[in-house]
Amino acid sequence: MINRTILVGRLTKDPVLRQTGSGIFVAQFTLAVNRAYKNKDGERDADFISCVIWRKAAQNFTKFTSKGSLVGIDGRIQTRTYDDKDGKRVYVTEVIVDDFSLLDYRKDDSDKNTNATTAGSSTNTQNTNTNTSQGQSTTPDPVPPDDSIDISDDDLPF
User: Fold this and answer.
1) Nearby residues of 75 by Cβ (< 8 Å), 6 or more positions away
2) What's the pTM value of the predicted model, to 2 decimals?
3) Contact 31, 49 (CB under 8 A)
């Protein structure tokens, strides 16, 4: 059986971080995901999908995201039921997030990580050596413009 969900969307509001009685962190949020087609008015509708993320990933998610953040999530669909205060059975379907990626950055927080990253992984930044007085990169071009590459038709795989 396969139960895998991958979504890309924007948070409808700031995620809510809570802690269970046993000290485990859990965050809940709603992801607005645009549909692939336009409605009769020429606009894209969106689905609003409830999501839950647990433990350290929940802490990281709430630290680096806020309302409007573009995120990618990887998880599984889960259903649960409970009885409300009136005794009615309530069914809940939500995505349990296993992994997430930040797909944009927070412009207002220069002290926080501003690069897209995956939960639990370190940020990889590449420093490019540039000459600030001339604005040119000092990284050499792998194929100089005056050199020609001699490839025969027999060398091509197609």
Assistant:
1) 4, 5, 51, 95, 96, 97, 98, 99
2) 0.64
3) yes
